[in-house]
């Protein structure tokens, strides 16, 4: 099958199956076998999901906890492969998945920046060139040379986000990144993500905050128990989710409200 | 990796595309970082740091040399017994370290594996390279000991030494690949591996000379020599130990099996085949790694 040249992401008939309980002991397995019980209890975290994204689109991915958002981003990112169906992407991918960065707890912030950047495909020279910008953005000061295992979850997220936004990516994934940051940092992240969006990169933004999705995205995909429940315009998507009801007088252009919603982005 | 290419010129492709071990060597900068990381992480929070990687083999060496050589009297069965032991110990230690650390490598790096897309073969390969890095200084100690006992390098010996290291590199990496995935599914594997590696020390002619095997197991030596690590140890002794004895040619004739180099070449070939098989198995299981960590 061929796709237009401005296609950025293709997700086609994708299903991802997980097992509910993996680590069974020898005893549990033998008891189950003796009683003739079924050992496998699997479920579809993603069930026949299909959509395509054009380069430069910014998608708000919404849905309740456990609906499969992070799993979908892991497939798009290439961390996992679908059990059936196809995922295709064009260009370099960066971002944060499930709020955390791939940092090694024993390494210092500095070492992790280099390692993380290398995994994302940056060369040593490129990293060295951007290092000061990354550190300035993360604002973690002297903690840079402390092991990230000792960071607060906010500091951890800051550094991860700082590295991810400084990669020259074509696709940017942001999975509940703002959940743990403090208010000034959230604002800064929002601005940076808008900058990313405006530079023509594809943006995948997972958030429960209707106002920030409205501000960032031009399309909403809602996942419901691993299925695409809605795919279309932002306002209709938010209505579909009925998130509005809890916040009836929400004005999309009001920064004050946005701040409030960002505060509630958990 | 190259600098950024405009997106329109790049193809639509599966994001997880990794071409296994070849992909690993396409990303040498990342591999170098991981190796450096692992070396520093292994000794993090330790005052003596890298020195431990000498203390460990040296202490084993003294135990074997004293208990086996002096008390049990193995020392009389082989000339320059300490060199005999140490040449073998370098190989055994290289193998055991690769196998053990490699088996744990993916689980130990789960923070990265769960969150980042990269060829996962990176981790076992990095473990092997870290162990190889530790071989360096041990070789220096061995060389000093050999030169002190009148050893001079010879071409056949050098080939034998390289074969020995090559066998352990390939075999160690293939076992590390296989068991690092197995360990993701059942953590029992890392415990099983450390027990298995305990046997390696006694299954190779390190603390006892090969002649003992040839005497006691006459007729079954082929079975003994089917162990590639035993071949690697013998090759290492051909490279360093025989040259330190009074009559190297006679020592090689008495204490080493015949056709040692061809045996080594076959063992190396078998190790390469093992690596290919390990890669195939790894590629099949790799899909399930991130969700099982
Ligand atoms: N590695 C895993 N093994 C088993 N189940 C998983 C795994 N990862 C996620 N799940 C399950 O898959 C479902 C979707 O998870 P996720 O994609 O993280 O949801 P969310 O939309 O909140 O990000 C959840 O029910 C979660 O429990
Ligand atoms: Mg999630």
Automatic annotation (TrEMBL), chain A:
<dbReference type="InterPro" id="IPR003593">
    <property type="entry name" value="AAA+_ATPase"/>
</dbReference>
<dbReference type="GO" id="GO:0016020">
    <property type="term" value="C:membrane"/>
</dbReference>
<dbReference type="GO" id="GO:0016887">
    <property type="term" value="F:ATP hydrolysis activity"/>
</dbReference>
<protein>
    <submittedName>
        <fullName>ABC-2 type transport system ATP-binding protein</fullName>
    </submittedName>
</protein>
<dbReference type="GO" id="GO:0005524">
    <property type="term" value="F:ATP binding"/>
</dbReference>
<dbReference type="GO" id="GO:0140359">
    <property type="term" value="F:ABC-type transporter activity"/>
</dbReference>
<keyword id="KW-0547">Nucleotide-binding</keyword>
<keyword id="KW-0813">Transport</keyword>
<dbReference type="Pfam" id="PF00005">
    <property type="entry name" value="ABC_tran"/>
</dbReference>
<feature type="compositionally biased region" description="Acidic residues">
    <location>
        <begin position="246"/>
        <end position="266"/>
    </location>
</feature>
<comment type="similarity">
    <text>Belongs to the ABC transporter superfamily.</text>
</comment>
<feature type="domain" description="ABC transporter">
    <location>
        <begin position="9"/>
        <end position="250"/>
    </location>
</feature>
<dbReference type="InterPro" id="IPR015860">
    <property type="entry name" value="ABC_transpr_TagH-like"/>
</dbReference>
<dbReference type="InterPro" id="IPR017871">
    <property type="entry name" value="ABC_transporter-like_CS"/>
</dbReference>
<dbReference type="InterPro" id="IPR027417">
    <property type="entry name" value="P-loop_NTPase"/>
</dbReference>
<dbReference type="InterPro" id="IPR003439">
    <property type="entry name" value="ABC_transporter-like_ATP-bd"/>
</dbReference>
<keyword id="KW-0067">ATP-binding</keyword>
<dbReference type="InterPro" id="IPR050683">
    <property type="entry name" value="Bact_Polysacc_Export_ATP-bd"/>
</dbReference>
<feature type="region of interest" description="Disordered">
    <location>
        <begin position="244"/>
        <end position="266"/>
    </location>
</feature>
TrEMBL record, chain B:
<dbReference type="Pfam" id="PF01061">
    <property type="entry name" value="ABC2_membrane"/>
</dbReference>
<feature type="transmembrane region" description="Helical">
    <location>
        <begin position="158"/>
        <end position="179"/>
    </location>
</feature>
<keyword id="KW-0813">Transport</keyword>
<comment type="similarity">
    <text>Belongs to the ABC-2 integral membrane protein family.</text>
</comment>
<dbReference type="GO" id="GO:0140359">
    <property type="term" value="F:ABC-type transporter activity"/>
</dbReference>
<feature type="transmembrane region" description="Helical">
    <location>
        <begin position="191"/>
        <end position="210"/>
    </location>
</feature>
<keyword id="KW-0812">Transmembrane</keyword>
<dbReference type="InterPro" id="IPR013525">
    <property type="entry name" value="ABC2_TM"/>
</dbReference>
<dbReference type="GO" id="GO:0015920">
    <property type="term" value="P:lipopolysaccharide transport"/>
</dbReference>
<keyword id="KW-1133">Transmembrane helix</keyword>
<keyword id="KW-1003">Cell membrane</keyword>
<feature type="transmembrane region" description="Helical">
    <location>
        <begin position="123"/>
        <end position="152"/>
    </location>
</feature>
<dbReference type="GO" id="GO:0005886">
    <property type="term" value="C:plasma membrane"/>
</dbReference>
<feature type="transmembrane region" description="Helical">
    <location>
        <begin position="260"/>
        <end position="282"/>
    </location>
</feature>
<keyword id="KW-0472">Membrane</keyword>
<feature type="transmembrane region" description="Helical">
    <location>
        <begin position="47"/>
        <end position="69"/>
    </location>
</feature>
<feature type="domain" description="ABC-2 type transporter transmembrane">
    <location>
        <begin position="30"/>
        <end position="218"/>
    </location>
</feature>
<feature type="transmembrane region" description="Helical">
    <location>
        <begin position="81"/>
        <end position="102"/>
    </location>
</feature>
<protein>
    <submittedName>
        <fullName>ABC-2 type transport system permease protein</fullName>
    </submittedName>
</protein>
